[in-house]
Amino acid sequence: MRHLRKVAKLGRNSGHRKALLVNLACSIILHEQVKTTVTRAKEVRRLVDRLITFAKKGTDAHRRLTVAKLKVNTPADKAQTKKDVVEKLFSDLAKRYEQRNGGYTRILRLGTRIGDAAPACIIQLVEAGAPAAKKDAKKEVKKEEAAS
User: Fold this and answer.
1) Which of 23, 62, 67, 25 is nearest to 42 (CA)?
2) What is the pLDDT of residues 82-113, one digit of tens each?
3) Model pTM score
4) Residue 120 dihedral angles phi and psi, to the nearest 5°
């Protein structure tokens, strides 16, 4: 049983796993979609959704939390791109998803990867705005009959 085991280890030690997830999250935010394995996508989805929620709140405290999660205080060659990620989060994505309560990413499965037969997928950011409401087919039929 996997009680109290919330993190997929991904075959890496903790430092390597954290770096992998942060870099993958930055790529998703910058490019808005990334091709990866299903297990990695499920793990990074949690991080990306939290970062977008922080950006929607927009306070200085949430900006600091985002910077801490993305580890912006890295060597100079990597820090500039992570600063771009923070700016895109707080300027573009926060406005884009202000009507949406969670569920900012989707995972599209692609089958297996050629080299090692790992289950591959694309993780991407969903469209802007509120999610589409589920339509009730019975109500639509009744409205059409009443209109006739």
Assistant:
1) 25
2) 888 999 999 999 999 999 999 999 999 999 99
3) 0.81
4) -95, 155
